Amino acid sequence: MARTVTFNGAPLALTGKPVKVGRRAFDFKLISPDLKVVKLSDFSGKIKVINFFPSLDTPVCDLQVKEFNRKAAGLGPEVVVIGVSKDLPFAQARFCSANEIKNEVVLSDYRFSSFGLNYGFLIKELNLLARGTLIIDQSDCLRYIQVVSEITHSVNFGEVFDNLQKVLSAPLSIKKAWGACGCRK
User: Fold this and answer.
1) Who has the most CB within 10 Å: 106, 172, 177, 185?
2) Is residue 176 one of the residues assigned to a domain?
3) CA dihedral over 149, 28, 39, 162, signed as positive or negative
């Protein structure tokens, strides 16, 4: 994974732990619209599609959340789509209400920056998240990572959902996932 992204061509440094496909997903503490702490373990047993972005107040982020919400409507109960930004939970709640975002859980990294730091997606100069998507399987193994190199560009939705289909059609067994992620029983 590149340790920089660009904003209108200007390079920006990503801080935090870089992540790799095949490794165990790191925990995080995010804030829900009702100001409760939400962790990765709250989605235990589900495939997690995590869509992260700088701010809902930009056209590309707006499109990204709406598109993931639209796609999430057609997914089964074994998949949860989670949107993460550093927007305040109040702004996220307002956006979700105004845009009928009901199929995606939108959470804030404003308080702890634990998602940004634990996954290496925090932009040092802006204290915002980069743009991209993760797929974490039921065993909490990272199966897919996409980080958009220019944050004014959109994620590649086709690539994300092609990879989600691969995870859905070929889930790792718990034993194999532990080995692939370097985890123990």
Assistant:
1) 106
2) yes
3) positive
- 61 labelled catalytic: yes
By the 8 A CB rule, do 28 and 129 touch? Answer: no
How far is it, in rounded angstroms, from Cα 39 to Cα 112? 12
Contact call for residues 13 and 116 (beta carbons, < 8 A):
no
Place of tokens 């998240």: 129
Q: Does residue 185 form part of some domain?
A: no
Residue with tokens 């709640």: 93
* Spatial distance between the Cα atoms of 26 and 142, rounded to a whole number of angstroms: 9
Which one from 61, 96, 141, 181 is the annotated catalytic residue?
61
Cα–Cα distance list, 72 to 22, 64, 80, 101 (Å): 24, 12, 8, 10
When computed from its CA atoms, the radius of gyration of the chain, rounded to whole angstroms, is 15
d(CA 11, CA 135) in angstroms, rounded, equals 26
Please report where in the chains the tokens 């404003």 appear, as a residue.
110
Confidence of residue 176 (pLDDT cuts 50, 70, 90): low
CATH number of the domain where residue 128 is located: 3.40.30.10
Provide the domain limits for residue 31: 4-180
> What contacts 136, CB < 8 A, 6 or more positions away?
25, 40, 47, 48, 50, 142, 143
Tokens of 168: 């859905």
Token match 């057609």: residue?
A: 74
pTM of the prediction?
A: 0.91
